[in-house]
Amino acid sequence: MTPLAQRVLSSKLLGALTAPHGVDRYLEQINPMWAATEVRARVVEVVRETSGEHPVATVRLQPTTTWRGHRAGQYVQVGVEVPGARRTTRCFSISSAESGPGEEFTITVRAHAEGLVSKFLVHDAEPGLTVHLSQAEGAFTLSESPATPTNNRLLYVTGGSGITPAMSHLRTLLRDGYDGRANRKVTFVHYARSPEDQIFAEELQRIAWADNDVSVHLRYGDDVFTEAALRRLVPDFRQTDTWACGPAPMMDLVREAYGDSPRLRTEFFKLSTRPAGTETAEGEVTFAREGSTAANTGESLLEQAEARGLTPEFGCRMGICFSCVSRKTEGTVRNVLTGEESSLPDEEVRICVSAPVGDCVVDL
Ligand code: FES
Predict the structure, then answer these.
(1) What atom of ligand 1 comes closest to residue 321's alpha carbon?
(2) 273: which strand partners?
(3) Tens of pLDDT along 235-246?
(4) Which residues are in the FAD-binding FR-type domain (predicted)?
(5) Is residue 146 part of a domain?
(6) What is the pTM of this model?
(7) Ligand 1 center to residue 31 CA distance, Å?
């Protein structure tokens, strides 16, 4: 889509003419890859990385021109229409080197036993499938340009799927440095359950053997993270810019080893739009137009409305597209992405990311 067409399609006038559904609802019907404000992507390729109990796949995505690009280490929320379920959204790390606006990128996904979206992407995604995206998010990013060599050493300590954002860093450094060099000394330590569970194995081997400033150390099984082992590799690790991402037990050990060193950066996801504490929700939620009142389940207003058989308008279900905006007339809602609460009467809220806190009345 040309920049002019993009500007016209995202204009307020067109937005008003196409209300309440919004211009993206109409564009989507004509071509799933046309969008004025929302971000969608077509699956271009699915590479099955490992098999076994929790198989991993890398999914290459061609986003719409609305994608603003990503920085190495960021993640993206991916919404898929899993057959037999409502659209479901989960966060996945981006595994490819930094992308520019509208450029292809990859996510690398491990299929979890309970993971509706991850299992669908790993087992069922095929080229041609359309998925919904947020813009890239997250602050686990490279702080220096890879094309400006410095003496600063970089250290990556990753475990399991935590390797994914670190791979995005490493690929960016090698792509954007000179002659495939990282242009600074990089130590890359990764812990996997077994060689069979190791993803990106061939590429890591190539990187390890090349003359590129990067040393790669792969550890398996009982060879778990210890401070002493890290000290042998990088004696002044506490003074070394470090990115760590992995399972909670490993991260606890890493944090302990670094103490209060400001050089350690760790990754966490805002994993779900499901608010915390749904099991302790209080009060009642009323959908005034429909005339129904029921106990607050703590889920988002959109989910509670759908559970009662209502069909409010929605688009991304991630708080991005504003398709779901409705009027809350009484009560308090919590934005499940930011945790912010708001009690203003008669306010417009995005019901996909608003959970009622106690009694609440919505004009639906
Ligand atoms: S459905 Fe997109 S903001 Fe709620």
Answers:
(1) 2
(2) none
(3) 999 999 999 999
(4) 36-143
(5) no
(6) 0.77
(7) 20
